[in-house]
Known about the structure:
523 residues; alpha/beta; Leucine Aminopeptidase, subunit E, domain 1; Aminopeptidase; 2 domains; 9-stranded mixed β-sheet; 20% strand; elongated
Amino acid sequence: MAKKSEPGAKRTEWTADPTPLPTVKVASSVPAGATAVAEFAFSDRLNRIPGMGKAAAQRRGFSGESGSLLVIDGGDESDSSAVRVVCGLGESDSVDPERMRSAIAAFTRSVAKHRRVAVDLLGDDLADLLGTDTTELVGLVAEAAILANYDYVQLRSSEDAGPRLNTVTVCASGDLRAMRSRVSRSSAVADAVCFARDMVNAPGGTLTPERFAGVAAERARSAGLSVEVLDEESIAQENLGGILAVNKGSSNPPRLVKLTYDPPEQGPPSGTVALVGKGITFDSGGLSIKPAESMIGMKMDMGGAAAVIAAMCCLPALEVPVRVVSFTPMTDNMTGPDAQRPGDVYTSRNGTTVEVLNTDAEGRLVLGEALVLASEEEPDAIVDLATLTGACMIALGERIAGLMSNDDDLRDKVAEAAVRGGERVWALPLPTDYDHQLDSDIADVKNIGTRYGGSLTAGLFLQRFVGDGIPWAHLDIAGPAMGNSVDGVNPKGGTGFGVRTLCALLAGWTGAGPAEPEVAPGD
């Protein structure tokens, strides 16, 4: 089933070369080579800033509130060249991990032109105030420093593009070996997030489905995963009608990538978890075409697949104890001469006939096929991620993902993992009395409901493709997958949302289901 010929216009080549990121080290003292050092202060403890009284700090306009910075030129007598940067954390009795992440982000961005900087945790009681231990705090600092220094530079021509920060040394007292191990895990998670960001930021006409699949396969094989890539002919042979229906208007052939992670051979795996990610590399809306303004940024419509692929590639480094298999269908949604028409009907792999009344509600069509494949693995649970509905953004804004599930325990565990990972989700219902909105006059189901509750009816549509009795959770990440401005550790552009949640969830999975891990990535 040979696909349409490749357009003659030359595309900008996109490679999988990673965005340059700083290296994080651990030491028991501030290194002499550091040219900037982070310290911390609370708004109710300004008198504890070394070498500067409360009145002096206030005269400099420093309140100690969360996100505030006080730059003090020069260090002490032992290192007169170092710049001290005091980072505000707000009141000491209300500090939390997110404030710490934001403080590290503000610091590292403020010193991005430096090559070697340090974060001084020596002598502070930050870990106790955060309700954790020093090893976990060091891991949090490492992850935040890497994430905040991300800048997508692959398509810039300037040699000076992007941050120049090379090394961050976290200085703390304690078991250096344990802290270095923790930093290694945190760095692996942060690197995975940034890989997802790279993919989301790549232009839709450059990161085509074929190229997307190639990049995913290359990274996955390097990580030690098993890889299977279905081309258009194989997709047709597997009766994945929803993928073919969406792809009809495109000149780029579709792909479906299956990745498999098998845990280290230290006894039987703790079950199987399946991940599914939406991989629409560009969404024009199809014949139900989007307005021009709404089409801007639609290269991010593969953010779910990017998060799933990146998280999968991180699992070996985390030595996750559960077998994990992922399915990421990839196509763009275009307006070619054979594009599916409103009113067309296709047949899904599980035999369901679907009437497509709005071709811009295409993500659920490709996800449905992937959910059927995931169900055939007979997993203990399925989690899918998708930039699915604008309705979810209207309900929850641009920084919070919607969480829906057919299983209360799985829903709660995903929500808890999101907290540990530093990502924000909010549970939404799957009301059975809304299900009738998807009834079709001519087929088994139609792909849209009424104007209201669009996120919920989208979730109900997906639920029809989940195997009976399988716990399933759906994350609608339409808002937080792409940022319009810098927000804490997240940059403007692709955020890699979902990677940290998945890593935290899977790192603690047991045979009976997910459980909080002893070491939680991102804590």
